[in-house]
Amino acid sequence: MQVTLRQLSLLLCLLSCASTNGARYTPDWASLDSRPLPEWYDEVKFGIFVHWGVFSVPAFGSEWFWWNWKGAHSIKYILFMIKNYPPGFSYTDFAPDFHAQFFDPDEWADIFEASGAKYVVLTSKHHEGFTNWGSPNSWNWNSVDNGPHRDLVGDLGKAIRKRSLHYGLYNSLYEWFNPIYLSDKQAGFKTQDYVAKKVLPELTNLVNRYKPDLIWSDGDWEAPDTYWNSTEFLAWLYNDSPVKDVVVTNDRWGAGCYCKHGGYYNCADKFTPGQLPNHKWEKCQSVDTLSWGYRRDMKLSELMDLPRIIKDLVYTVALGGNYLLNVGPTADGVIAPVFEERLRGIGAWLKINGEAIYATKPWRVQAENATVLVWYTSKNTSTVYAIITSNPMQNSFKLSMPKTSSSTVVTLLGNPEPLKWTPLQSTGLTVQLPELPFTPAQAWTLKLDGVA
């Protein structure tokens, strides 16, 4: 039976109106943006992003391989195909080689848990349109009918939740070469066949089947939110879906929406604000600085090292954001050892310094240039954390921003003995640092209890 967009919208509306369960959100941004962000998201601070799909087979350039080859006609990609594949080879011919034969979801989940991350976001579908679950609206272009012949979304979700981590799903609204989408695009997005036949059925299927704690929307920028019927979907999601009380969404729901509408803001990829934003936000960053998907041609110099990652995490949390760090597995289903090493290194640092990250709030001052750059986070009304992002190489260390009292206690996280300190004349203090313990992360935290 063919279901029209009007019928889908009516169904969502009826579902929304049917519930008598507390406050209702109407399908408009004023109402949807008034929804409080579920508390768990602000508390977790650190998550892992996973870009995995057919693009992991050529593993060349970036996850935009198909577009760069057939959309942008990049000479780099054209020459790669001429050199390595026979004439007539199409992008869809890569799918059978997306074997994922070494994919062990429990092993992945162990690595993610060891990293200290509290949520994981997997690509359920990237812009290529290939779904990592058996989407009923994506016959033979999905991981059950093709390639791995398994439900990657479901398998990873079970392993993640066994470890009490939150599970989120990335979903691209548009698909580069889907003929139904291209037809709507050709019509100036005055028709919505692609939304009715693909977008809304797949999104509701994902939510009902996997009950994600987070939906990371993308691929929205070519058309307005009215084309995507975003507000109707979000009203159903917030009012009547099986995750209505816990689900978190981002801001990519139509051209002009990002950094303006949605649950929290991603804004641009690798968004780095210069000052404390007035809305909850997230920075998505990839260990491989040139790609989100796995690249066989990546070089060590193109990867973020551990000190750089920790600095980025600390900066983001001090400014009130969450940090979503991406790794791209191989087509075989392996997380490269260099990525695993980075993730375990973060976890080792967080085991000692995590109380300065998890469930913290931005302080009244986010940073100061002491002898070295210091970032501040806070908990309750009298505990402040000063995170030192490089070794000051001195015993006497001044912090000018904290307002001390006679009850102030200063400790170095990982060292139970209180440190000696003396107040400065007006505000601030001088701390007597011990020899700082070695850490590959090159960052240490001073905990200040009893400060204003």
From TrEMBL:
Residues 16-355 form the Glycoside hydrolase family 29 N-terminal domain. It catalyses: a neolactoside IV(2)-alpha-Fuc-nLc4Cer(d18:1(4E)) + H2O = a neolactoside nLc4Cer(d18:1(4E)) + L-fucose; an alpha-L-fucoside + H2O = L-fucose + an alcohol; a neolactoside IV(2)-alpha-Fuc-nLc4Cer(d18:0) + H2O = a neolactoside nLc4Cer(d18:0) + L-fucose. One of its GO terms (cellular component) is lysosome. Keywords: Glycoprotein, Glycosidase, Hydrolase, Lipid metabolism, Lysosome, Signal. PROSITE patterns: ALPHA_L_FUCOSIDASE. GO terms for molecular function: alpha-L-fucosidase activity. Alpha-L-fucosidase is responsible for hydrolyzing the alpha-1,6-linked fucose joined to the reducing-end N-acetylglucosamine of the carbohydrate moieties of glycoproteins. This is Alpha-L-fucosidase. It comes from Anabarilius grahami (Kanglang fish).
